[in-house]
C-alpha cells in the first residue's frame, strides 16, 4: 500500500479502528514515513513518559549509558550521591556528544575540547576558558532531562514539571 496524498487522513486508518478481532495493523507506510515518525515524536514521545531501562543497569556511582531518544542524545548516569539522572548528552561548548556506549566513569568528558562535567552534570573543567571575560562554569552545566523511577523502571519525558495545587 502506498501512502495516501494526505498521510493523516482518517480514512487511511479505518481498518485500524475496527473492533478488536477485526482490526488490522497500521498500514506499511507508517513504518517508513519520515512525516509519520515526526508526528509520533511530536504528539507522543515528547509528551509522554518513555521507558528507557531499569535502574539496576547502572548500580554504582559513575555507571552510565548513552542513548538517542527521538533524535535527542541522552546520557543516564548514577551520581556519587546515588541519584540517577538523565542529561542532554551534548557538550555546552560545541555540541559534541559527551559520552558514548556504556560503562563507568569518574566524570563526563567531551572528546572535542575536553570540557569535563561532574556526574551531576555541573561543569567542572573547561580548558583555556579561565581567562575568558564573563565566563562562569555555573552557566554551562549539561541540561537535565526529567527522569523518574517506578518499581525499578526508568522513564524520561520532555514534559516540564507542573506545580500541584
Biggest sheet statistics: 7 strands, antiparallel
Write down the CATH class of the largest domain.
Mainly Beta
Return the domain count. 2
Give the % helix: under 10%
The CATH superfamily of the largest domain appears as Rieske [2Fe-2S] iron-sulphur domain
- In the CATH hierarchy, the architecture of the largest domain is 3-layer Sandwich
> What low-confidence regions span 5 or more consecutive residues with pLDDT below 50?
none
The fraction of residues assigned to DSSP E strands is 25-35%
Structural class: mainly beta
Arithmetic mean pLDDT = 92
The strand count comes to 10
Q: Report the total helices.
A: 1
Calculate the terminal CA-CA distance, rounded to whole Å: 50 Å
Task: Give a structural overview.
- The protein is elongated, with a radius of gyration of 20 Å.
- It has one helix at residues 34-45, and strands at 50-54, 63-69, 72-78, 84-88, 102-104, 108-109, 116-117, 123-125, 144-150, 153-157.
- It has 165 residues and is mainly β.
- The protein has 2 domains: 11-45, no CATH class; 50-157, Rieske Iron-sulfur Protein (3-layer Sandwich).
- The chain has 1 helix and 10 strands, in the order αββββββββββ.
- The termini are far apart.
